[in-house]
Amino acid sequence: MTPDDLxxxxxxxxxxxxxxxxxxxxxxPSDDATGLDEPVQGQAFGDHWRASPVTQxxxxxxxxxxxxxxxxxxxxxxxxxxPPPPVRRSFAPPPPPDxxxxxxxxxxxxxxxxxxxxxxIGSCSYNVSSILSGLSFSRPGGVSSMTxxxxxxxxxxGEIFDTRWAVAALKSFEENDHVKAVVLRVDSxxxxxxxxxxxxxxxxxxxxxxxxxMGSVAASGGLYxxxxxxxxxxxxxxxxxxxxxxxxxxxxAGAMDKLGLKAQVIKSGQYKDIGSPFRPMxxxxxxxxxxxxxxxxxxxxxxxxxxxPNLTAEQVRAMADGRVFSGQAALKAGLIDSLGGLKEALxxxxxxxxxADPSNAQVIYEDGRGSLLEDLVxxxxxxxxxxxxxxxxxxALKFIYRPGLF
Length: 406
Hints:
This protein is α/β, with parallel strands linked by helices. It is 37% helix and 16% strand. The strands form three sheets. Strands 4, 5, 7, 8, 9, 11, 12 and 13 form an eight-stranded mixed β-sheet that branches. A three-stranded antiparallel β-sheet has the order 1-2-3, with no helix packed on it. α3 packs across α13 and α4 packs parallel to α5 (193-205).
């Protein structure tokens, strides 16, 4: 058999595909006999072999399945002068994943995590804050570094949930003879009732002059603390007022029903779980909590009247409906004594403290932080405190002005 015969055998019939030389029953010469042909191995796919048969033009068409042979794929022969045929591999793409089913199961988890997070974030932030607030943070250049007469600035910033550091600072100011007066710098919308009352009592018991300087916001609990000062100042644009008490709780009973979750409560009395987020609040429970809110509200009014001798109880009650005032309006209403910033408050404190030479007076600043660690994590974790106080499940009484969550 000549090379021309090989080309004739390999030529496809008109309109058909190329056939291997063995297709018509004629055995092609072996590689050993001619030395001209080289086998091209196909690729195995399951029980079939795929290979690219030689076409008349010398190109190779897409592989076709050949009958499975126990001894492997049949070799393909090439003619003299033809390049070795490339082996084309064909891979079937994997089936697409069931995205719809996965999406349905995934969407319910964020809601579950959100609900559970409401109850865990409050306890987590409280525990971290409590641990850190028990640590001792020293600030270089504090009250112990004073060598002459001066003024101490006690800064209350952010929402108020822990005032132990401030009470301790006041004690150190009281014991240091170089501290002649204190400027209470308030930039806070208030906070929990009990910490505000603790600091208020410490300020009232302080024997040295206390001048209050209101910053951007000194509302509700911030104003409550200001009532302990001997002189109260604010900027014209300060937000103050918001006299009142608020209690907030979160109810997730409807969301739990949709998720198929149910809380089991075992209690010793009818009102033991009052304010529970797992069920709607009854009318009797609302009346009980309302009476407690009004009781604390009267405490707020009484302390404002004591701090503003120029106002009667009726005048204070008339403006104690939660409304806010600018610094300018607060001056007209009698809630503050004068307008001015921190500089003017320092001058007022030096004058009241009897400092003869204000130009040489020393000023120290205490805000409860005092170190890089305290700045980073602090006993007053502002973000967690805001989230905790906004979504906490346990009701809490607050002197606070907060029109938004953050």
